């Protein structure tokens, strides 16, 4: 399914998701190139809220750029299959193979990124038009960090994952929402 169709089918959880979905859809429908970082004002990213099969754990990485525990994800960089991007980023950033709980979009966010240095070059402030997927992984699988991206990867209880983030806005506006939405996707063991 293409992203425009997926966005039209998306059912927002709250006003933030409704407004962000409308803005991403508007940009796509107007032909703005969002799949590549060459659009220095705004481009697509894909993130994953990675949970254990019993939904009692969340996988987080200590992100070097933000100096905080955070979800996993990255840039589309031309790939139009954002679910594949999210799954690849989880594997690259943690060593873990994660699988979709659903192929549908789990959450949408427009995230501000402040200007910063990356690999010796200045990156101007811009927006990440982020599509989040709910993925599931085995918490007993070996973990590894990804130098240059993160320094640690660990499983947390959902409450501790949220509390571990030092980014207040992400913690209160995004991670708490992602945890609350888990109620829509009960674990198979809870049936």
Topology:
Blueprint: H1 3-9, H2 15-29, E1 42-51, E2 58-63, E3 68-70, E4 72-75, H3 82-94, E5 99-100, E6 107-113, E7 116-118, E8 121-123, E9 126-136, E10 150-156, H4 158-164, H5 168-181
Parallel strand pairs: 1-9
Antiparallel strand pairs: 1-4, 2-3, 2-10, 5-9, 6-9, 7-8
Structural description of this entry:
With 191 residues, the protein is an alpha+beta fold. The chain has one domain (3-185): Nucleoside Triphosphate Pyrophosphohydrolase, CATH 3.90.79. Helix content is 29%, strand content 29%. It has 5 helices and 10 strands, in the order ααββββαββββββαα. The strands form 3 sheets. Strands 1, 4, 5, 6 and 9 form a 5-stranded mixed sheet that branches. Helix 4 (158-164) packs antiparallel against helix 5 (168-181). The longest helix is centred in the first third of the chain and has 15 residues, at 15-29.
């Amino acid at each position: 399914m293409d992203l425009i169709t997926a966005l039209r089918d998306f059912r927002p959880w709250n006003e933030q998701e409704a407004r962000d979905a409308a803005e991403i859809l508007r940009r796509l429908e107007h032909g703005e190139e969002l799949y590549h970082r060459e659009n220095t004002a705004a481009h697509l990213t894909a993130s994953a809220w990675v949970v254990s099969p019993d939904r009692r754990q969340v996988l987080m990485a200590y992100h070097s750029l933000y100096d905080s525990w955070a979800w996993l994800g990255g840039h589309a960089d031309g790939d139009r299959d954002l679910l594949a991007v999210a799954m690849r980023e989880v594997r690259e950033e943690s060593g873990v193979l994660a699988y979709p709980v659903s192929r549908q979009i789990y959450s949408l966010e427009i995230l501000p990124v402040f200007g910063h240095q990356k690999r010796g070059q200045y990156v101007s402030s811009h927006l990440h038009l982020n599509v989040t997927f709910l993925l599931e992984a085995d918490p007993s699988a070996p973990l590894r960090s990804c130098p240059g991206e993160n320094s640690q990867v660990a499983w947390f209880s959902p409450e501790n994952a949220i509390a571990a983030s030092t980014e207040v806005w992400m913690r209160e506006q995004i991670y708490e929402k992602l945890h609350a939405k888990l109620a829509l996707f009960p674990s198979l063991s809870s049936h």
